[in-house]
Amino acid sequence: MKTKYYKKGEEIIKEGMLSDCAYIIESGRVEVSKKKPNGEKQSIGILKENDIFGEMGLIDGLPRSASVVALEDCSISIMTQEAFNSLAQHNAQALMPILKVLAKRLRATLQLVEGLQDGKKSSSSTINESI
After folding, report:
1. 73 sits in which H/E element
2. pLDDT digits 0-9 by tens, 3-43
3. Where are any strands of DSSP class E within 48-107?
4. What is the tens place of the pLDDT at every residue in 42-81?
5. What is the pLDDT of residue 120?
6. Does CATH number 2.40.360.10 belong to domain 1-79?
C-alpha cells in the first residue's frame, strides 16, 4: 500500500467523485461530512488513527457518499482496488477488519433509521433524541 500525506484542511475525498480505493489513517484525524439538500455541510463523524474510510468504493465502485477533510496533518495508507482484490483471492481473512467496519456502519445507519421512523410515529421532537 502507498502512503500519502495530507495537510490540515486538505480535502481527501469529495462527495460524488468516482471511487476506487480505501484509506487507512496512520496518524491524524479527519472529518467525514455530507452536503444537505440546501448545500450546508453536515458533519457525520470524526475518524482517527487506524480507522478506515472509503471502503464502500472498493466493493461497489460507486461515487463517494461523503466528503473527508483532514482536521490535522495526516498520514494515510491507500488500499487500491488491485490490493483489495489480491487480498480477497489470497488472504480473505485479511479483509475481516473492512467487513467489520461495513457491518458496524450499517448497524448504526439502521438504528438511525429506526429512531427516525419511531420519532415520526410519536412526535417530531424525538428525532433529535434518536440521533
Report:
1. none
2. 999 999 999 999 999 888 999 999 999 999 998 889 888 89
3. 52-53, 67-70, 74-80
4. 898 899 999 999 988 888 888 998 999 999 999 999 998 8
5. 59
6. no
Asked if residue 97 has pLDDT above 50, the reply is yes
Grid cell at residue 18: 468516482
User: d(Cα 68, Cα 51) in Å, to the nearest integer?
Assistant: 13
Q: Return the SS3 of 51.
A: coil
Grid cell at residue 40: 450546508
DSSP string for residues in 105-125: HHHHHHHHHHHHHHHHHH-GG
- Maximum distance among all Cα pairs of the chain, rounded to whole angstroms: 51
Rounded to whole angstroms, how far apart are CA atoms 89 and 96? 13
Q: Which three cell numbers stand for residue 5?
A: 500525506
Question: Which amino acid, 11?
Answer: E
